[in-house]
Every structure is written in C-alpha cells, then in structure tokens.
Amino acid sequence: MKRVLTAVILIAAIFSTNAQTDKNIPSRQQVLSDEEIVAGLNSYIEQVRSDWKIPGMGVTLMKDGKVLLMKGYGVKDYATGEKVDKSTLFQIGSVSKSFTSALIASLVDEGLLHWEDTVKNILPDFEMYDPWVSENMQIKDLTSHRTGLKEQAGTYIPNMGYDRDDIYRMLKLMKPVYTFRGDYQYNNITFIPAAKIIEKVTGKSWEDNVRERIFEPLGMTHSTLNGEGFSEVMKTGGAALPYEFVRNGKQMQVNPLYGDEQALWWLTVIGPAGSVCCTPEDLLKWAEFHLNNGKVGDKQVISEKQMNYLHRGVTITSQNGSRTNLYGHSWFIEQTRKCRIYYHTGTTWGMTTLCFFVPELNVCGTVQVNSEAPSEPRHAIMRRALDMFMGYPDYDYNKEYLDDWYATAAKRAERDSAAAAERVVEPAPELRKIAGKYGKEAPFGDASVTLENDKPFITIGPKGWKRELKHVNGNKYNFRMDGWGFDITFLFEEGTAGSSMKSAYGFEIAWGEGEEKDFGIWRRK
To answer: 304-340: string of b/e by CB count within 10 Å (b at 16+)?
Structure first.
C-alpha cells in the first residue's frame, strides 16, 4: 500500500479546521479553576486518542509560568505496552523550522547577519531557476515560504539517498510556479540554504548551533537531532515507535513503521526543516521560551526585537469573515475574535506535533503524537483548552472534526471504487526491454535497472540503494525508498504496448504525491 502523509515536515496543517467559528461566539461563563480545566482535559484527551486510534500522546500545558499538565497518554508501542511519559522522545517535524529561524535571529542579534541580506552575498554559489531571483533572494524569504517554489517541491528527493548538498544544487532546476514573493506555498528545502548561511557565518554545523544556542541555554537536555539520534534513543526504549495513519476504504487504520519505512535518512537530510526530536518536557520549554519573548529565567537569550520579528506575520495563508491566518518566520499566527494563537504543526513519517503559545492568556502548550493522524485531533485539544481558559462553554471540536473525516473518507472510497471500475488494464513491457543503464546530469547521476529472478530492480541515487520495481499499469511502475513510494514511467522509442516496443530510451519519476515530473528524463546509456 502506498502511504501518503496526511501533512508533512515535513507539511504543517495551516488550514486547520476552526469549528465553532467566531460568527456567533457564545457568551463566556465563569472561568474554571486550573484543577477543573486539567480534569476536563484529561478525559477529553483520552477520548480524542481513542477516536483517532492514536497509540500514544504527550501533552503539556502551562499558564502564568505554572505547569498544569505534563503527561503521557497511551503507549509508545502497542507490542510492548510501555507507557508514554514526559520523558518519551518524539520527532517534532516542521516545528524544527522555528529552531532554524531562531538561530538566524540570534545571529542578527550578534551583528553577523541581517534579515535583508541577500542569500547570494553570503553563499556565492546559490542559484534558483530565475537568475534575478538568485540575485535578490533575501534571508527572510527562505523562512517565510514565498520563494516562488511549488508547495513541497523537492521534499521527497532525499528519500532516494540524496543529501543536503545535492538538494541545494537542485534548486536551480526547480521551475517557479508563482511570482517571487507573490504567494505563500509551504516548502521544506529552502531551509537548507538557511542552514548553510548559519554554518557559513559561525563556522559550525547547523546541528552544533542548535545544541549550543538553543538546547543548552533552554535546558533541553533530552532533545536530539536527525534520524540517527532518534534511532539510537529508540534502541534504549526512550522513544515512541512511529505509526502510519491511512484510510482503508471508509475506515482509519494505523500500522507500525519499522526500518526503512521510518525514513530516518530523509529526516537527517531535511534536518533544518524537520529533524529536531524532543520530549514533552523539553518541547514545553521551547513553547515557554517563545511565550516569554526570548527569556529563560532572567536571561534574555534572544532579544525581544528579534523575537517580535519572528512572530510578526509576513504572508496571509487563509482568511474569512471571522479568522485571519498569517505566517511569520516559522510560526503561524491565527487571529479570531476569541484570541490570537501562535502555533506550528509538524509531521514526519509516523509522528505529528503541535506547539503553541497565546500571549494574551499567558498560556502555552504542546501535543505530540506517535501517529500520522491528521492535524484535527491536535487542534481539538488545543482549542478545547483555550476555550476553558477563556470561560467559553463546552464545544466538542473533536466530534465535528471526526464526523468530517468519516464523511470525507466515505466520499473518497466511492471515488476509488468508481476509478477502479473504469481502469483499463495495460500489459507490462517485456522486462528485458527496460533493463539497462540510464544517465542524467549532476547532481542526479546514473541509475540502472537489473533483472533478478525475473523481477526488475532499480539502483539509483548517490548511496546506491536498490529496490524492487512493482508493476502498476502499462509502462508505469512504483518503487519504495526510505519510506516513500515513487512512480516511474518508462519511455520507448516507438509504440505504446506489445511487441512493437523497442528498448526503453529513458524513464521519468514523479517526485511526490501529485507532483509533476519537473526534472526531465533519465536517458538510456
């Protein structure tokens, strides 16, 4: 089964549902005590976990500097039954972007950078598809998703073994889909040049900068970075096992992810956009740091001026009569008639996260999940908690979100059935005609298709990974690497089926779900 991420590292759920819209906000009731809020949330969180078939969750909540909730719910792994607690390590996905932006802010404080510096002035080899954009891209553009790149462009290329330098060199091959600074489209790979800038001016790796400038001053002693670090903690039993979340017909299904399916190489490569791993206890410190506008105790780690810059909206992501959503520098800002919420979500292979803070309530919190369940259960918990703090009557966000999910699943299942009934089955080409060596310009390099026991295998990417090609239909196959499925279509010199085919003259790969084949053809050598 091809697994499709509900939201990426990769992908933040910016258009999250906003049930009980503010058009008719109910009157406030008496504000509950902290104890009543925690008691109500405990049962609500368990209901959310059960309804969305979530193995385990870590949830934290702080108000007025006091920790009200720091608790695990469910298990790290169904097989062992070991409980999640405040010290369980989770991947936090795209919440990592806020770490990269904060590093830049700290370097601006030190006078080593300015947000308006052009990227090319610091990285002379930086190239985008449009030469004018290459010359005029500023640091602030890298962290606000308005570079002209298509949403999620390039996100899945690392899953074939390409590293950060490879992706950096591929930027010049990616055609823009909108005018530079003319729109908002969420992306991961622009955080790679952002990390290179950090490394250039400090002389240290992005990872070392995170440790020295964030983990250490904030006391995040149990946090780690990249896939390898997470894997090591998992071996000791200190990390939650990731679970995929898929739609099976009209129903939810969760499956544990092991080995290659955890995409730990991808997590390392995409690091500046998604490789931070935190326990609930540590992630709350990150939320509190932003709530306190850059202070840890009496120490101002990042200046208020730069923290305000990080939290300032740059681009409108969505808007209606009762709500405006903006994106700043790695934070979403949601303004409604109730309050203003700063938050970011994160999704990796088998893990999802929500980190938020609300200055006017002096509240912050986190929700971490060892499942790719969509953003709705996390948002349901956050919105219910904030309503309770503000004294609004009970509203079951979870039920509304759940009903919507099942209604949508039913419609999709019907479309799947209709599409299957209309599908025209085409034969596979003779395997000997697709076997051979193929080449493409750097940084992609060569690939080969070999036959083993009458099965085709592809070897591709700089790490030389080899995987079996599974026939889909006609000349189209699929292969999985590092937890992601790629569609590959073989191209022939003449004809489309049967004996009229000559040997393949090339193939093209679809790089992501619904993503066009932007990078041309590997040609037969």
So the answer is: eebbebbbebbbebbeeeebbbbbbbbbbbbbeebbe
